[in-house]
Amino acid sequence: MFKKTLLTSAILATLTAQAAQAETFKVGMGDPMESDQGALAQRFEELVEQLSDGEMQVELFPGGQLGSETGMIQDTRIGKLDFALVGVGNLTPYAPRLGALTMPYAIRSHADAVKATTGPLADRWNAIAEEEAGVHIVSWLYSNFRYLTNSKRPVTTLEDIEGLKVRVPQNELMLATYKAWGASPISMSWPEVFTGLQQGVIDGQDNPYIVNYTMKFHEVQDYLTEVHYQYSLQPIVMGVRTYEKLSDEERAIIDRAGLEAQLYALQFQLTEASKARAGMEAEGVEVSTLEDEDEWIRIAKEQVWPEFYDDIGGQEAFEEMQKALGH
């Protein structure tokens, strides 16, 4: 009995020591756990813990618990927060050349989005993020196109968007795009959007189906239009300072977990977006498509692209990206 007690005590001591040695990493994100952000983050958590045999633990903080996306980016840059899962548009104030990924109609399909965030282009964006923003891109979430919702009327032509107060992130390119189309865009932080829609401070906003549905925008929005102007890419970022303090093995685990979670999230998006659309329609949202999207594209190319070439690294660099995507 005495020997068995000693053995049990030894095992407990070993487990306690292992737990004490485990390092915990915090991940902040703006959307709820049942969103596609949650799907990516949970898979990332599982992979990090599996690949490290539990020596690296991940703790998730959904729903803006750790602040706005802008605030979380700043916290990762200074090492206060380990990881932030954010919209790439909120990263561009720190790394302007990443704005190439948000140019209206630069990405036109799921295939484009994948090609833009893997291989040589992925290496390019990560180098820019590290140099300009001080963050390392660990993974990419494919959240589909940002579809326009509003509470006023169906939007099927440019005339219909005239004067609509549309929320956009703190992103000059998105502000300019909606202005070029005749809307009245308003920059607003993510945690304020639902209340802004509810109180009529804004008429609408744009986000992919899964985000629109999990955020319950159908409760305050009656109409959705499939505008294909911007594919919502959301990276998980880690401050370069924090990343460089890790061992080679820890960095390899994080990067592998990020890539595998990225592939998982793409499959999640392809299967769940249609369910989210059906859910919104069941709640009474009227879904429309554009009758004149060629005109939206023409205005974006002629009025918006030239205004931002300098900000995103020049026209030549943007055209190289477009060529790499086969456009």
Helix content: 40-55%
Number of strands: 11
Uncertain residue ranges: 10-20
Determine Rg (CA atoms, Å): 21 Å
Cα-to-Cα separation, first versus last residue: 75 Å
On the 0 to 100 scale, the average pLDDT is 92
Distinct helical segment count: 14
The general outline is: globular
Helix/strand/pairing class, anyone?
alpha/beta
Pattern of helices and strands: HEHEHEHHHEEHEHEHEHEEHHEHH
**Proportion of β residues?**
15-25%
Task: Specify the biggest β-sheet.
Answer: 6 strands, mixed
The largest sheet has its strands arranged as 7-6-8-5-9-11
Features:
327 residues, 11 strands, 50% helix, six-stranded mixed β-sheet, alpha/beta
Produce the secondary structure layout:
Layout: H1 2-21, E1 23-29, H2 36-51, E2 56-61, H3 69-77, E3 83-85, H4 88-91, H5 110-116, H6 119-133, E4 135-145, E5 147-150, H7 158-161, E6 165-168, H8 172-180, E7 184-187, H9 193-199, E8 204-207, H10 209-214, E9 223-226, E10 231-239, H11 240-245, H12 248-282, E11 286-289, H13 293-308, H14 315-324
Parallel strand pairs: 1-2, 1-3, 6-7, 6-8, 9-11
Antiparallel strand pairs: 3-10, 4-10, 5-8, 5-9
